[in-house]
Amino acid sequence: MAGALASHDFTAVHHDKAAAQDARVHDVFMNILTTNGTVGRYVPAWAVRTPFSKGCHNLGAPNFPGDTMKMSGVVKARRGHRLR
């Protein structure tokens, strides 16, 4: 996948379907750096005009080509105008 190659992640399961199938998954899947970048774009769009100071996310399942990625967020703390 382009995200894996753009982030210099040459692990075969991210861009070679045969290698992914050898690793017992049905297709290539998104790498963590691409996921992190997607989350990094989502949070500022979700929390418009609110400084964001800290966050974490969990990977629930691999994201395969054609999958719909769903994201949601919860504000755990607020310090002034800053979300955590």
Give the structure's gist in a few sentences.
With 84 residues, this protein is mainly alpha-helical. The chain has helices spanning 2-6, 17-22, 32-46, and strands at 78-79, 82-83.
Quote the average pLDDT.
Answer: 81
- CATH homologous superfamily placement: Hotdog Thioesterase
Trace the largest sheet across and list its strands. Answer: 1-2
- The sequence of SSEs as H and E is HHHEE
Classify the beta-strand content into a percent band: under 5%
Secondary structure class reads mainly alpha
Annotation, overall tally of beta strands: 2
Q: Which architecture per CATH?
A: Roll
Radius of gyration: 16 Å
Quaternary structure of the protein: single chain
| Total number of distinct structural domains | 1
- Largest sheet composition: 2 strands, antiparallel
What fold name stands as the CATH topology?
Answer: Thiol Ester Dehydrase, Chain A
**Helix amount, in percent?**
25-40%
Bulk shape: elongated
Number of helices: 3
How far apart lie the N and C ends?
Answer: 31 Å
